[in-house]
Amino acid sequence: MLIGLYPKLSIFLATYFSPVWLMFYPIMFIVETVLMYAYYLSWDTLADRKGIHISIGVLMNIMGTLVMFLMNAVTSFMNTPVKAYEEATVWQLMNNFTWWPLNIHRFITNITFGGFITGLIAAVMYMTSKIDEDRAFYDWMGFVGNLIGLTTFMLLAFPGYLYAYEIYQYDASLGIYMMSDRLSMFFEMQGILIGLMYLAGNYYIWLSMKRITGAERFTSLIKAGFVLILICDVIWMTPRHFFATMLLDPGVLPAGMDPEQYISQMELPSHLSFLALMPIKNAAAGLSIVVILINYVLYRISIKRGAIRWGEIDPASQYTLIFLAFAAIWQMGLMGAVRSLGRKYFHIYGIMKDMTPDAYTPTLAWSGFIVTLISLLFFLLIGFCIWVGLGLGREKPVKGGNHG
Amino acid sequence: MGRKASRGRLRRKLFWTIISAVVVWVVSGQVGFPTIFRIFFIAYVMLGLLLFLFLDARPLSLPRRPILAIVIFFLIASAVLTLAGFLLPQYDPKIEMEKIQRVQQIAIEQEKEKEQKAITEAVEAARKEFLAQLEKEGITQVAKKVIPGRPAPTDSDAKRIAFGKQVYNDYDCYNCHKIGGKGGVKRRGPALDNMGNLVTAEQLEDKLWDPMVWYAEGFEKEYKKITMPDNYPKIMSEAERDALVVYLMSLRDPAGETARPIFPANKKGDQKDTAKKIIDQNGGD
């Protein structure tokens, strides 16, 4: 599709990244696919030699990560290209300002994504299970998936900041376009999602504790934690102003209103402008993370002192797991849109202009609609995989697992 | 939980929600938040009510048709997130489309130039011969690649200034610089209100083409980090640059907090030259 729709860009990238794009990437992709089939098909064959089986899995993940790093090099080059690109070596083209921040961010995101998708699959299987033993297993599976997803989700803020920092270092106008100008409301939407995901993650812990005997004594403490997260959310979400561009666009102003009067009604006054700056937002995000950690510690204390009843969790928890997976996918789509739109009217920033009529930044409303469609398509595919792979709706004996 | 007890809890939640909303509304007003922010905070108080209703809700039962329930849940979640995207403030893409079309014109002209390569080479050769002749006569000139683009209006200063102001907006200069108090949220570049009284047109031209040539007093950190973009020679035509310079040179508000230029050692120009040129521009006094 890339070659067909963007031939000029494809030729440029294939020329400058030929070893990466035309050689290493296809080879490693094929190797990864072979390893994936080997891992899946040897599950029973290597049941008694788990070490080898796990090694195949690890190798497959390493290959997949390297494949991601290679494509990240091309993607990051499109946003922050090496300025003297014509004389640069392939390594210099790859090792641009945002390559490693993108690598780190996506590496952690892959784990987060895997955790939440595991939770999603577990939730679907839990809700469609007919026997208690199955529900107990999928309850445990959902818990573990959510734990992995949520733990790594909390780490994502830091590589995200590093990524934005490197964009600012490369060209401050790119960073400002992203955070203060036309893409600022995209980040407001990101804030909504992160806030909802923190709340959902804590809500899942709350429901998990309801199935542990003796956990009731922590109820007040956890509720106080929710209040704190709500306050942190408000701080995180408070924008500098309630219009979508740095300067007021013509047409936004209501008829007959003075621009200064409108701005004073829509913008934080100067003595409160600190609420729009990153230090206080970082503090709010950090505090939210601390609350989640405290809640998890309370959960662990409850398990040690009480008995956990797997399979007896409130089904609302399964909707929470589904929501977390959906929000994670939607978030990835949104941030992908930001990365792509942050290039403004360039295919490769500062080097190759986008000369099509569609070179402008679409509105958040339209972008959100497209992201929703893509997310739904993704979940249709996942649903198909669950139906084919896990025998959704068909009774299957489940081997006992570690429910600790 | 009995119905009576749960109604009691609901009443208590509503009571505390109303109290919280009133407190938030009054305090935020006293502190100086505009109305829209206060409404935003109240919305969060309502979200808090919803959350606490969820926390104390009775456990759900497993759905009789789980797949249908999951699909409906997906659709609701999709609708909520899509709606949130619609409700947040939007901009008019047409404004940016017009801006991009103006800037893209340069690239279109560049494509045309490539098609007429033979003519361009001949013109270039003639130009070099001309420059060589000038150099022989003692006139130095730095050769710059001619990028055809939007022609600057020539019939009046007002039109050139207007064109320059358009260039300023098209290239998003307001992202880092303030004029009239507007633009540049974080301190990345100096305010430009008094540029016309502090630098010469030539120095402004040099700065646009090479950000390292001088810097504004107090912005040494930003200068060392090369915060100002250095790709304008590639994306901006000389006509646009010249118009931008005309516009910036028209800004002569002594009350504006524009920092004076600092010329690092071994860079073109220095303060004495600047003072002399400004004096000459203003008639010798």
Task: List its traits.
heterodimer; A: 404 residues; mainly alpha; 2 domains; 1% strand; B: 285 residues; 12 helices; 2 strands; 61% helix
Written account of the structure:
The complex is a heterodimer of chains A (404) and B (285). Chain A is mostly helical and 404 residues long. Chain A has two domains: 1-96, no CATH class; 100-391, no CATH class. Chain A has 15 helices and two strands. The longest helix of chain A is centred in the N-terminal third of the chain and has 30 residues, at 50-79. Chain A starts with a helix and ends in a 15-residue tail after the last helix. The model of chain A is unreliable at 397-404 (pLDDT under 50). By secondary structure, chain B is mostly helical. Chain B has twelve helices and two strands, in the order ααααααααβαααβα. Chain B has a two-stranded antiparallel sheet. In chain B, helix 1 (3-31) runs antiparallel to helix 2 (35-55). The longest helix of chain B is centred in the first third of the chain and has 29 residues, at 3-31. The radius of gyration of chain B is 30 Å and the shape is elongated. The chains are: A mainly alpha (404), B mainly alpha (285). Chains A and B meet through helix 6, helix 9, helix 10, helix 11 and helix 12 of A and helix 2, helix 3 and helix 4 of B.
